TrEMBL record:
Keyword Aminoacyl-tRNA synthetase appears in the UniProt entry: no
The protein's name in its UniProt record: DnaJ-domain-containing protein
Entry-linked InterPro entries: DnaJ_C, DnaJ_domain, DNJA1/2-like, HSP40/DnaJ_pept-bd, HSP_DnaJ_Cys-rich_dom, HSP_DnaJ_Cys-rich_dom_sf, J_dom_sf
UniProt source species: Thelephora terrestris
Domain of life: Eukaryota
Domain CR-type: 131-216
Zinc finger annotations (CR-type) as residue ranges: 131-216
Domain J intervals: 6-71
Any Pfam family the entry gives: DnaJ_CXXCXGXG
Chain positions covered by the region annotation Disordered: 383-422
Biological-process GO terms, alphabetical: protein folding
Biased composition (Acidic residues): 400-422
Keywords, comma-separated and alphabetical: Metal-binding, Repeat, Zinc, Zinc-finger
Repeat in keyword set: yes
Amino acid sequence: MPVDTELYDLLGVSPNASEDEIKKAYRKKAKEHHPVQNRDDPGAAARFQEMAAAYEILSQPETKGMYDQFGMEGLSGGRGGGMDPNDIFQMFGGFSFGFDSGPGGFGSARRKKGQDSVIPYEVTLEDLYNGKSVKMNLEKDALCSVCSGSGAKGNAKPKKCVKCEGKGWTFVHSQVGRNQIGTSRAMCTECDGQGEKLREKDRCKKCKGSRTVKEKTRQELSIERGMANQQRIILAGAGDEEPGIPPGDVVFVLKQTPHDSFQRSGNDLLTAVHITLSEALFGFSRILVTHLDGRGIHVSSPPGKIIKPGESIVAKGEGMPVYKHPDTRGDLYIVFRIDMPGEEWLNTVDRAQLEALLPPKRVDVEPRPAVVDEAQFELSDIADARGRAFPTSSDFFDHGDEDEWEDDDDDDDDDEPECRTQ
Ligand SMILES: [Zn+2]
Ligand SMILES: [Zn+2]
């Protein structure tokens, strides 16, 4: 009586079963539990593998003898190998073989559909605002039309693989230590784990037995208004075809290129507009922004309002269209940059008169410091000084990161997109 009957139990036979009975039992079980027949049962593949492994051991006198005498321990590299005898299938280490090895064999038996094709697609902010439809040519694996995906010529049938006797894998014994034999399995190289193989002369002429051919297809990609950067557009079933399973999908991933004038945050937009000193003081009524759809956005400032540097306004409902609800839109934030007049201008006016009109200059601080040194007036590049002299964690010059402007009233960062000239 064997010390362990688990493998016999798996095949549903008695430990006294003959070679022939074991073989018959395995064939019946394998058919019943084959993953292709049990696609909706996630455990089927694992059970199938366990039975195949059990049969592999019990069908060979050498390994059967070791199992009967010592149990799984006897097959794990000698007695007392330190392995848990209950953990029988872990010992074989190689049980995951083939299942992730790509097309064919056990791999395709487990996969529920063909490979998805993931394609990055560059879009502009205008595309996401206005929507866009793009037609393009793609190449995919399609089932061969000549052999309907069988890979065979006419009615030729694949022959059972001689090397693995139709199992798709072979049992490999190797020396793992002194007087110890390790046992592992490897996918059959002769049939790539299929268990059967078409003879050269039986292969379909068009696909040469590979069952699929490259095919050009024309696809239409619909970029809807309000879609987001990184959003995925899935063309279901437009991907690669494989025999016996539904085709994969084509998945486009939108990648928005940076915009010269606008930044997007959710459904809101941010832009910066330069106004003159005169406009800041006395107001304006003009087209401030050309929008992403080419419309001019006209704004009149309220009478008597002085616009200070970095101040912002919000144009409600002038942001991005909301995805799937394009009639609803976010808001457009406009940050003001005030252009000071140049020296040439100063030379054309009566300075004394202008100075008298403007608010008075400041006088020295009170109380006056006991020691006062004179420093040179030297123009500097603040961005340069910031990079060189201040640690990156310093927020001395920072007024909020440009990526965090959302919900931030303090919008006067220095890195907003360039203003458009208009
Ligand atoms: Zn084979
Ligand atoms: Zn073919």
